[in-house]
Amino acid sequence: MSHTLFLQTPANFDFKRTVLSHGWCELLPFEFDQEQWTLSTVIRGEKPISVKVRAAEKSLQIELPEQLSPQDQTALLSAVSHIFRFDDDLQEFYDLTRDEPHLAWLGEQNAGRLLRSATVFEDLVKTICTTNCNWALTRIMVTNLVEKLGEAAPGGKKAFPSPQAMAAVPVEFYKAEIRAGYRAAYFRELAERIAGGELQVEDWLTTDLPTPELKKELKKIKGVGDYAAENLLKLLGRYDGLALDSWLRGQFYKKYNDANPCDDKRIRTHYERYGKWRGLVIWCEMTEKWL
DNA sequence: GCGTCCAGGTCTACC
DNA sequence: GGTAGACCTGGACGC
User: Which nt has its C1' nearest the CA of A183?
Assistant: First the structure.
């Protein structure tokens, strides 16, 4: 029997801006329904559970297929808070951008919370899936990972696979079944290191390491270069890096350089004045029209 | 139908 | 530290 929970949202929270903050809502286990304005996903706790989330009065309304134990309910609400970035205090970001006419909308619309996955591991794998390919292939790889390695929740929808599940299949599986190409060995190695306890990527959420040091740690992972590391850092709440990729560069060229290419140094100089918030400023600026 | 290019880059070898 | 070339794949495009 279905069950509904409500989770109070922070004061400066916007459901739609968060859901459409970047492409993650299009990648399984997320499923976005633009007509109903709901975001579904599968949370992998003690056992996978599918949830459907929509905006309600000063809260999120969360539909579940069944009532949970108090312990499981607490864990689920914590996961939803994590996904929707309730912990991210953006007041300083809004104060910084309020007086700039082209950025004042950020605070007015409560923009800037970047949707993230239930775990750092999932965000890490998905980020590697965005490198050196088009968005269609990213979606194919993530869909295959979820459909072929994810554990099913009651109702049949699947969660993102655990490191253990990903460590249990050979490199050839990633090539033939996931269509991961040269990334196959990266995924297998990453999953093995995490499943074996050598690498604790979830600790990156709370580490005291300065951002440059943390970025070095991220780049030790095969398949993670400057773009991927800086993109992940954004999902960890650190916005110092621009995470420049071909799409973001192209948007900058159109907006500020008559659609002509320029070097990255010029882009970095343009955003330098936003300090530790520059990565969030460029992303929000280039995706303003997504909503 | 076929070949080429490129996309939400990174790695390695070499200088 | 900087750079050229290789790397999987699938979709768009030109012919």
Answer: C8
